[in-house]
Amino acid sequence: MFDSIIAKEGQKYILIAFIAMIIFVLVNCKFLTFISFVMIFFLIYIYRYKYIDFKSFKKNEIIAPISGTISAIDVKDLKKSIYIDVSLCDSHILRNLEEGPCKISIRRGLNLFLSTFKSKVLNEQAKLEYVNSSMHLYSSLYNPSIELPSNKSLEKGEKIGTFIQGEVIVTLNKEFATLVKIGDKVISGQSILGKKEENK
Fold it and tell me: Are residues 72 and 26 in the same domain?
């Protein structure tokens, strides 16, 4: 029941905050009790989870793997790269881009602000490569260590983890046209980033 509303990645943090609140209540420390109480609700908000129906996705569409704001769209060798900024106020459920095999690579590193010098070189990052697209995750200050499933063949739209803060870059093959623009807010598992053009 709890898994249906809270992502399992955040449950241990919520439990720690709850235990801390109980301890502060017992020692009669009102300020820290209040802080712990607020932290519990903040963590519940951060790790909130909503089930979606995988069967509703079309094969010729690429969905948003995470909620956030489109900050840039780049084109290189006819491939389109869509940059999604993920903040603490967004939904942080990370979803699979495509059905089928996926090559996953993770490089451990720091959690610096992405605006800092060489942050994309030093920060922790992960890359997922599919048949028609790829997804690059760049961790930022408040993001825990990136954890992805060992099963590399997953359903389209299936939850594969959480991503709290940073940048997600989705690159589409040349056959796909982008359906978003800079400044758009996208929702994990709902917004359509691109659609395959029938004539190409």
Answer: no
